[in-house]
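Chain entry —
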Amino acid sequence: MAKHDVDPVFRALVRSINESGQAVVPVTLTVHGTVLRGSLVSEARYFTDLAERVPMMSALEPSSGLLGKDYVKDVESESGHFLHLRAEGMDGDGDGLWRIAIADVDAWSLPRAEGVAESEGKGPFARLVSG
């Protein structure tokens, strides 16, 4: 199987979500033949949600400092290579939080945003299209 480059549009979407810290974008992903549906969230939101769901996982949150400076540096340096998904509607253990390498995403789709006002529809790209 040939190695492909990461879609620059998708990488920009993930980067914008991470920079916003609060944006939540519904998405459908295909990762090695598995279809995942849910919402893209920022890395910061991912770690916060993880600690809320399983309190002992709070050590994984870089800002906790519990795993040391090298861990924080490693997470920060790899941040742009991962997306964070709040998965929905899968059978079994598929629901929950996923951290997925962006390079592993084969395809992606955004659902139709019905009922979203134009001013709200800019989402994580608001800083790019304003002014």
Q: What stands out?
A: The longest helix spans residues 8-20.
